[in-house]
Amino acid sequence: MAQEAAEWPPEETLSLWKREQAQLKARVVDRDTEACQRDPAFSGLRRVGGVDVSFVKGDSVRACASLVVLSYPELEFCLQVAKQNGSSLPSACQPFRCWKQLRAP
């Protein structure tokens, strides 16, 4: 059992991940779009966040993804979302769309 878990995901899963990664890459915004980004003092910025995705040790399929949002500049906790999946990595990331539902700190 442990031997099977350490193997790479099936080619079909890898292909799916590659396609989804290419789609996400095409949506990357590589320039400042908000006024607060162009201001050295970041005035108007209200929240900052970070995302981490980690595979379960010894398992190349199951992963845990987390999102944390903090207020800015206070850096007080606003929201944490975590999801562990059992089939494919991209499905673990879908709950992150809820960040838009945050209330003002």
Automatic annotation (TrEMBL):
<dbReference type="GO" id="GO:0016891">
    <property type="term" value="F:RNA endonuclease activity producing 5'-phosphomonoesters, hydrolytic mechanism"/>
</dbReference>
<keyword id="KW-0963">Cytoplasm</keyword>
<dbReference type="GO" id="GO:0005730">
    <property type="term" value="C:nucleolus"/>
</dbReference>
<dbReference type="GO" id="GO:0006281">
    <property type="term" value="P:DNA repair"/>
</dbReference>
<protein>
    <submittedName>
        <fullName>Endonuclease V</fullName>
    </submittedName>
</protein>
<keyword id="KW-0255">Endonuclease</keyword>
<dbReference type="GO" id="GO:0005737">
    <property type="term" value="C:cytoplasm"/>
</dbReference>
<dbReference type="InterPro" id="IPR007581">
    <property type="entry name" value="Endonuclease-V"/>
</dbReference>
<keyword id="KW-0378">Hydrolase</keyword>
<keyword id="KW-0540">Nuclease</keyword>
<dbReference type="GO" id="GO:0003727">
    <property type="term" value="F:single-stranded RNA binding"/>
</dbReference>
